[in-house]
């Protein structure tokens, strides 16, 4: 896995809150190595922000990763998106959802987000 570049505030649309990888491990009740594995497997999205790998907090709901997130990340990766581009796609506002795809993943529009991620490759 290539080392992600640092994402600076204001540079890209993004979440309001970020979690460090140890915070994610604690929230998911997993070891830090398992969190790293989830990132490598594209089951979870992390980007470097202020020199530290961080995960958008809303992608980790309660004590689990959002159900459809791994599928969406796989579809975006298969379409040629890198982690930074996937973050931008997830957090770009879409009036037809409404909101961003990341916000829609937590609700009844998750299947629509997956359909759109699949279409992104064509």
Question: Topology of this structure?
Answer:
Elements: E1 18-20, H1 21-28, H2 32-40, E2 47-49, E3 52-56, E4 60-61, E5 64-65, H3 69-78, H4 83-91, H5 101-104, H6 110-119
Antiparallel strand pairs: 1-3, 2-3, 4-5
Summing up helix and strand content along with how strands pair, one would put the structural category as: alpha+beta
Number of DSSP helical runs = 6
User: What portion of residues is helical?
Assistant: 40-55%
- Mean pLDDT comes to 87
Count the domains.
Answer: 1
The succession of helices and strands, N to C, reads: EHHEEEEHHHH
Strand proportion, as a percent range, falls in: 5-15%
Largest sheet: 3 strands, antiparallel
Strand order of the largest sheet: 1-3-2
Domain Rv2175c C-terminal: 67-120
Pfam family, one: Rv2175c_wHTH
GO molecular function, one term: DNA binding
Domain DNA-binding protein Rv2175c wHTH: 17-59
